[in-house]
């Protein structure tokens, strides 16, 4: 029986979680300095589906005994879900997550200080957003948001001070951090402020992560020499499984699969060693025969929309114009002016759309030209066109 996890699991069991020993040791060692008043700030990067989220959840499990570890996922915040991204909404989410984790762990969650803070500032409380009894203030003026921000970003440190007899420090993990890009002027309104608080807290470690392609500007805006955290932020990149790792993985977790040598080479090429693709694809393969190269290719093409479901969801959320841009890039990289000519629009009108597609990691800009970043998306689009004679603008 296959012991492979589903391709979209966010938390894996000990049995399902494979390898990553080096990354885990590295992160564990770095984070342990939090207990010596020297909390690190870490940026964990890696392409879609490589295993950042499952690794972070594992780290939470490992560090949970000695530390208060708070795992946040910015895409779960209600402001993101409702498509109303704002600094205030993210602060609410941040605040709630800290307090609920604190309560779950049986630590003092500063309830009376919090009440007093709201009262002194005359903050009214939101009646309907009172999640698990955690009060959420109604705030509208810029000045009050600043006070609230100050309070929320300092909260972890205050909680540590109150509980230092029970924990060695606090670790705040923020996954899907890239969604801050949906806040207007995110650098000034969020990132630089956040950094101001984060870097001065010696007992609170921060681990930021999310789907960011290596070309993403956000990475240099956070961790580059001139970025918000300057040289202080340690960057760790998670790589896909090597061919050897993928081979050992399947032998151990899916011994029912058999490949010829070329068959396995092709399996590895198709999945690029990305664990989520490996898991989804391997579950679809025929276990009653030894798979050769051709059979692997056929199975891959037949299951492509399943393997890429994550990416296809993203494709579905694009506007028709954004999809048009990607389609112009299917056969070759193009300059902006060339894309504009093909689409019969003004070159200037493409800036926002190209930025958005770059932010999503779907296209990249190299040597003056735009190209599709996800080669499997390109393969899927081509196949759909071949089979149906039309590009899949609407996928049901
Ligand atoms: N160490 C691992 N062992 C086994 N399977 C793994 C491992 N890492 C990742 N996977 C598989 O890959 C899937 C995707 O992992 P995960 O969600 O952590 O990726 P991600 O890097 O966070 O992707 P995204 O950028 O889209 O958020 C998991 O659901 C699991 O099936
Ligand atoms: Mg993730």
TrEMBL record:
SUPFAM superfamilies: P-loop containing nucleoside triphosphate hydrolases, Winged helix' DNA-binding domain. GO terms for molecular function: ATP binding. InterPro entries: ATPase_dom, P-loop_NTPase, WH-like_DNA-bd_sf, WH_DNA-bd_sf. Pfam families: ATPase_2. Residues 17-278 form the ATPase domain. It comes from the Archaea. This is Archaeal ATPase. The lineage of its organism: Archaea, Methanobacteriati, Methanobacteriota, Methanomada group, Methanobacteria.
């Amino acid at each position: 029986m296959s012991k492979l996890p589903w391709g979209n699991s966010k938390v894996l069991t000990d049995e399902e979680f494979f390898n990553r020993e080096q990354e885990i040791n590295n992160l564990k060692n770095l984070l342990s300095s939090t207990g010596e008043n020297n909390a690190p700030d870490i940026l964990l990067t890696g392409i879609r589906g490589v295993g950042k989220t499952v690794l972070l959840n594992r780290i939470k499990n490992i560090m949970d005994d000695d530390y208060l570890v708070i795992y946040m996922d910015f895409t779960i915040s209600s402001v993101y879900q409702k498509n109303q991204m704002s600094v205030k909404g993210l602060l609410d989410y941040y605040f709630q997550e800290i307090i609920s984790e604190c309560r779950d762990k049986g630590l003092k969650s500063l309830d009376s200080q919090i009440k007093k803070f709201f009262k002194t500032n005359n903050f009214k409380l939101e009646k309907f957003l009172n999640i698990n009894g955690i009060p959420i203030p109604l705030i509208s003026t810029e000045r009050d948001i600043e006070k609230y921000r100050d309070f929320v970003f300092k909260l972890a440190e205050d909680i540590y001070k109150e509980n230092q007899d029970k924990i060695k420090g606090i670790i705040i993990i923020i996954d899907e951090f890239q969604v801050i890009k949906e806040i207007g002027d995110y650098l000034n309104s969020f990132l630089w402020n956040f950094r101001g608080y984060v870097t001065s807290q010696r007992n609170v470690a921060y681990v930021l992560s999310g789907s960011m392609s290596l070309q993403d500007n956000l990475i240099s805006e956070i961790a580059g020499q001139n970025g918000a955290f300057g040289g202080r932020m340690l960057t760790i990149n998670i790589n896909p499984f090597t061919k050897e790792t993928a081979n050992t993985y399947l032998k151990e977790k899916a011994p029912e699969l058999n490949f010829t040598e070329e068959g396995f080479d092709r399996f590895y090429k198709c999945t690029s060693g990305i664990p989520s693709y490996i898991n989804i694809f391997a579950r679809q393969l025929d276990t009653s025969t030894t798979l050769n190269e051709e059979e692997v290719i056929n199975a891959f093409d037949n299951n492509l929309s399943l393997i890429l479901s994550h990416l296809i969801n993203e494709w579905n959320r694009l506007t028709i114009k954004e999809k048009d841009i990607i389609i112009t890039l299917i056969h070759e990289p193009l300059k902006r002016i060339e894309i504009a000519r093909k689409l019969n629009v003004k070159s200037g009108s493409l800036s926002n759309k190209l930025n958005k597609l770059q932010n999503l990691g779907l296209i990249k800009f190299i040597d003056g030209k735009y190209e599709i970043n996800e080669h499997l998306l390109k393969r899927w689009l081509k196949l759909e066109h071949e089979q149906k004679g039309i590009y899949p603008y609407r996928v049901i």
